[in-house]
Amino acid sequence: MPPTSPFDRRPSTEAAMTTGLSAAVEQVLGPLETFLRFEEGPDPTGRRSVWRAALNESLPRQGQGAQAVLDVLNEVVIPNGLRIGSPGFSGWITTMPSVVPAVAGFVASLVAAQRWYAWPGNFLEMQALSWMGEMLEMGPH
Description:
The chain is mostly helical.
């Protein structure tokens, strides 16, 4: 019987991965590159019932493993991402990050999982806010 959803896979007993970051990231790079070209047709918001149904699963008794998660990212999450960074999209004032800020966010998610603790990103965030205040002539803080 074929899987009925991306999560309908055999259970896995593998431990959480702390190695193989490059290989895991490489698996999502192709779909992300395709997404960032914004050539795949209309905004997926209209297909919400389809992708939401694919993701809306009961709590599994056992994890599905790393490859199943990467497959869901590639097959469901990435193709249905918001197109707010697409040239011509004008639905909101905010937008998505370009490539370098996205990479910086990825790095921060790994090396600073607890933002309250001392790490260089806290300093850089305060520096950026200070520069923004200076550009807007808000004066020193």
